[in-house]
Design goal:
Length: about 250
């Protein structure tokens, strides 16, 4: 069966996960992390993606970004993945694939869920028991979003900007979000939506995405799929920007 096309509407954030093949290591040394971040920024600018949050784990990557065009995120991940594999194979005298294959993604509702994705991403090293606090892990956007480290990569999302009127109070409000554990139900929703290529958000948001794209954007019931949704195309969605629902 052909795989489902990605949900893609310009201006609506994506949460992305890309894993190493068979969950194997894809970052071996400090220079590898730096190389990836350098070209993440270069290709984000080239293909029109605003990067809001990221974490580079040893065997996978999380990104939160907003694409400016329907194909922006896919082009970013394609060219970044290819460039990084070439670098790794050349540096470590290896050959073959590095990534698991097709990266996982979901569209993310702005209200309630974008800041949850920020936290989900930047708390990943804590959940993996690699560090006790997110600031203890070097390769994440927490240092910019929470601590004010200068970055030409990070573009704050509007929901982040609304936390406060000025930078200092905004970062303080952002740090306060991390004092409470991220609800396990929300963690499960983020994982399920990203792994399943569904819309992450409330029922109204999911229905609006389905109406805009003409196909299913949430987990369906068992049985024959509805004829109202098209799940068997691999083409990118070439849609004009649509308003985001609540």
């Amino acid at each position: 069966m052909p795989r489902r096309a990605r949900l893609s509407i310009p201006g609506i954030p994506w949460h992305i996960i890309q894993r190493g093949n068979n969950r194997s290591v894809c970052f071996y040394a400090e220079e590898d992390f730096q190389f990836y971040l350098h070209f993440l920024q270069e290709f984000a600018v080239k293909f029109g993606c605003d990067i809001h949050a990221y974490v580079l784990m040893t065997n996978h990557v999380h990104l939160l970004l907003t694409p400016q065009r329907p194909d922006s995120a896919s082009l970013l991940m394609k060219h970044l993945g290819q460039r990084y594999v070439q670098y790794i194979n050349r540096t470590y005298k290896r050959s073959g694939t590095l990534w698991e294959g097709r990266f996982r993604s979901c569209l993310t509702q702005t209200e309630d869920y974008v800041l949850a994705c920020y936290r989900y991403i930047e708390l990943n090293p804590v959940r993996a028991a690699m560090v006790n606090q997110p600031q203890d892990y070097r390769w994440s956007s927490y240092h910019t979003n929470a601590l004010g480290k200068a970055s030409s990569l990070i573009v704050p999302h509007d929901q982040y900007q609304r936390l406060a009127m000025d930078d200092n109070n905004r970062r303080e409000a952002y740090r306060a979000l991390f004092k409470a554990h991220l609800d396990e139900e929300v963690v499960g929703q983020i994982r399920n939506a990203t792994n399943g290529n569904f819309a992450l958000g409330g029922e109204r948001f999911q229905k609006e995405i389905e109406a805009a794209l003409g196909r299913r954007a949430r987990r369906g019931q068992a049985g024959r799929p509805s004829h109202n949704f098209i799940d068997d195309t691999n083409q990118l969605d070439l849609l004009s920007p649509q308003p985001e629902g609540g």
